[in-house]
Amino acid sequence: MDHRLFVLRHAKSSWNHSGLTDRERPLSGRGHEALPRLRRALEQRAPNIEVVLCSSAVRTVATLDGVRSALGDHVQVTIDDQLYDAGGQTWFERCQEVGDDVEGVLLIGHNPGLERLVHDLAPTGEPTAREVLARGFPTGALAELVIPGPWSALEYDSCHLAAMQIPRELP
After folding, report:
1. For a tag site, which of 51, 95, 99, 171 has the least CB within 10 Å?
2. Residue pair 114/54 in contact by the 8 Å Cβ criterion
3. What pLDDT band is residue 130 in, cutting at 50, 70 and 90?
4. CA distance 78 to 167
5. How far apart are CA 158 and CA 81, in angstroms?
6. The dihedral formed by the CA atoms of 22, 94, 41 and 14, expressed in degrees to the nearest 10
7. Domains along the chain?
């Protein structure tokens, strides 16, 4: 059974609040405007998300809140301080810990960790993935990866990048 991994970088954050730590930065107006488009994208592509792993930063939790109505009531949400500054390896290990019976997972976090994870999972020899990933992983980017086996057996270069969407390109 294939599994689906959705990787969402938080929506655009604001830098207009001096005195706040990076973890406390809120979404900007543009970030809030992007949330309905991201929510629709998840509704269309991700009906089977069962687990959400989210950084504890204000902007990631606000992004989660903005897309939450696209997720079912049964979704298990974990907001984790350790994911705030997590690298790609940490995200990878967290994915491997997901129960093999879980069909879909949504990660909400930050760069460079999420971008590294997507680069590591999607084979660089796959032309579409190479072209898409060369554009970077901007705020609000949503990648969809198909995992060909169980979460516990997840390996680098083993996934298919099925889609990559960014808010300014979404209806």
Report:
1. 171
2. no
3. low
4. 24
5. 28
6. 0
7. 3-169 (3.40.50.1240)
- Burial label for 102, CB within 10 Å (0-12, 13-18, 19+), is middle
Distance CA 123, CA 32 (A): 33
Per-residue pLDDT, averaged over 14-36, amounts to: 92
* Residue 116, number of CB atoms within 10 A of its CB: 18
Band of pLDDT at residue 6, cut at 50, 70 and 90: very high
Calpha distance 19→30 (Å, rounded): 21
Helices (H), the chain: 29-45, 58-67, 88-96, 113-121, 127-133
Element (H, E) at 9: strand 3-9
Pairing mode, strands 142-147 and 104-109: unpaired
Rg, the chain, Cα only: 15
CA distance 169 to 37: 9
CB atoms < 10 A from the CB of 168, how many? 10
Residue 28: both structure tokens together = 């900007």
The encoded tokens of residue 113 equal 């960790």
- Which residues, other chains included, contact 98 with Cβ-Cβ below 8 Å and sequence gap of 6+? 51, 105, 151
Residue 27 vs residue 73, higher pLDDT: 27
**Is it the case that residue 129 has pLDDT exceeding 70?**
no
